[in-house]
Amino acid sequence: MSEKQDYYETLKVSRNATQDEIKKAFRRLAMKHHPDRNPGDKAAEDKFKAAKEAYDTLSNEQQRANYDQFGHSAANMGGGGGPGPDFSSDLGDIFGDIFGDIFGGGGAHSDAQRAQRGNDLIYTLEIALDEAVHGAEKRIEIQALENCNTCGGNGCKAGTEPTVCQRCRGSGQIHLQQGFLTLQQTCPTCYGRGSSINQPCKACSGAGRTEQTSTLAIKVPVGIDQGDKMRLTGKGEAGPNNGPSGDLFIQIRIKPHPVFKREGQNLTCEVPISFVTATLGDEIEVPTLTGKVKLKIPPETQSGSVFRLGGKGFPKTRKQISGDLLCRVSVETPIKLNAVQKQHLRTFQTLLDEDHTNHTPKAQRWFDHITAFFRQKNTS
Description:
Blueprint: H1 7-11, H2 19-33, H3 42-58, H4 61-70, H5 90-103, H6 110-114, E1 121-127, H7 129-134, E2 136-147, E3 163-164, E4 173-178, E5 181-186, E6 195-196, E7 209-220, E8 229-232, E9 248-254, E10 261-263, E11 266-273, H8 275-280, E12 282-288, E13 291-297, E14 306-309, E15 325-331, H9 339-354, H10 361-379
Parallel strand pairs: 1-9, 11-15
Antiparallel strand pairs: 2-7, 3-6, 4-5, 8-9, 10-11, 12-13, 14-15
Helix pairs in contact: 2-3, 2-5
């Protein structure tokens, strides 16, 4: 007779494995080598028996302790072995999981098959930027499966009731004998419901649910951001067989704004100003999401300069702490000038040139860099 393999090696676990690890290891091997999955395969059957023998010993703390001390000879020791493994608890759970996978449903699944939770729904809500800043109340229409109004969700014609399934006698499961084990399988007649519908509801054809349109009022909180989700519990699809409804998730999409762009908690906008305003300075009106405000433009302002208006940006959700509005000025070049206007500009340029003052420091620095660059190129 060949020597038995070490039980820990059989289950492919370490010698200090927990009971949960031992149980999971046996389940994997039983799923792989069970005879019902490998009909006629003697090698698979032997591996299944070896795994079961190893689990029988290692799942019992007293037998495991004896095995760790005396090895396989512990099985021949009288009185110290303790009671055998409890097949009605851990091992029973394992076989229930295994054969539920093999045959399409076990005891752990019967309740879910009778009353299942409905599907979650996702709705994309498009809002304006000012609605995201200040909050808003919106109304949306949702199409979803709801319990049938005619039959109340039981799928039966008015005045009738479901009858107990004769095959499973209302349990939703049938029992199959597989060798020394009794297996549970979802009843193929009632599909796990435990009842049959002899006279189905005409409105839902016995399904118990119909697609309906409902209107919901949605409160958009202050400061909500692009991509944020709001969860409405129980506003999704109704569950089959009068099961609980799923949830509705509202996903926010903020429409592009013609004036403002968002940068974190700040808002930005481009403010065009004239050449004269940029040169001499002035006070202009700029828009915000709460109305117009005054912005002071200092003399000699350059195009691209940014001015900050505190507290006129985007508020943080629930904290009511707003960001700032960043106004980036853009100096516009005059267009469509007539002959007189053009001549005045030429005269103005002549006056600038004649006083020998550097009126354009940025341009001067640029020319200095270019001159130095070409000088270096010529000398290299």
